[in-house]
Every structure is written in structure tokens, then in C-alpha cells.
């Protein structure tokens, strides 16, 4: 696992926050299974959370929780999303 730090910034997306910076420390050893436990992806125009979840092996609830969303409609096209993977 690699420790990752995120900086959030208030913006014009419906949930009021956007990721503006990501940094990581790769001095540790990587995960044994080779798949990341957290992915950052950009929402495609017209895309729904369930398709993001399916593409990344996650769930709508995990994505909503990771991005502090109250409703699925809080996802804005082009927004960066944190996508946790099922463990």
C-alpha cells in the first residue's frame, strides 16, 4: 500500500468540493496483489456512478462515501472521483 494525501478545494461542482492535488509516498512496498485499493478517475459526460463502479470493481455506495456525496446526482461531468476498490 502507498500512503496518499489529497487536497480538496471548494468549487462549482454540486457537492461543493473538488480534488485539486494528489501526492503520494512511494518509499514503502507496493500492495501484493498489484491492484490499487483506490483509483482516481474523471467522470465522463453522461456517465452514471454505477458504470464508474462497474469499471473499477467498486460500488456506488463506496464511491459516494469516498467523495462525500449525498445523492448520485451530485456527480458532475468531468469531476475527479476517488474510487475505492472492494477489499
Walk me through the structure.
- By secondary structure, the chain is α+β, with helices and mostly antiparallel strands.
- Helices cover 17% and strands 29% of the residues.
- It contains two helices and four strands.
- The protein has helices spanning 49-56, 60-66; strands spanning 4-10, 17-24, 38-42, 80-84.
- The strands form two sheets. The chain has a two-stranded antiparallel ribbon with strand order 1-2. Strands 3-4 form a two-stranded antiparallel ribbon.
- The longest helix has 8 residues, at 49-56.
- It is globular, with a radius of gyration of 13 Å.
Short description:
The protein is α+β, with helices and mostly antiparallel strands. It has helices spanning 49-56, 60-66, and strands at 4-10, 17-24, 38-42, 80-84. The protein has two helices and four strands; from the N terminus they run βββααβ.
Strand content: 25-35%
Going by helix content, strand content and strand pairing, the class is: alpha+beta
Helical proportion, percent range: 10-25%
Strand arrangement across the biggest beta sheet: 1-2
Instruction: State the helix count.
Output: 2
Unreliable spans are none
> What is the number of strand segments?
4
Approximate shape: globular
Rg on CA atoms, Å: 13 Å
Distance between termini?
Answer: 12 Å
Main sheet summary: 2 strands, antiparallel
Q: H/E series, N to C?
A: EEEHHE
Amino acid at each position: 500500500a502507498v500512503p496518499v494525501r489529497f487536497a480538496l478545494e471548494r468549487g462549482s461542482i454540486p457537492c461543493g468540493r473538488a480534488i485539486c492535488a494528489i501526492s503520494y509516498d512511494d518509499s514503502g512496498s507496493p500492495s501484493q496483489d498489484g491492484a490499487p485499493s483506490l483509483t482516481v478517475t474523471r467522470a465522463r459526460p453522461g456517465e452514471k456512478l454505477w458504470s464508474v463502479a462497474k469499471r473499477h470493481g467498486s460500488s456506488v455506495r463506496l464511491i459516494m462515501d469516498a467523495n462525500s456525496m449525498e445523492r448520485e446526482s451530485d456527480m458532475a461531468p468531468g469531476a475527479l472521483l476517488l474510487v475505492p476498490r472492494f477489499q
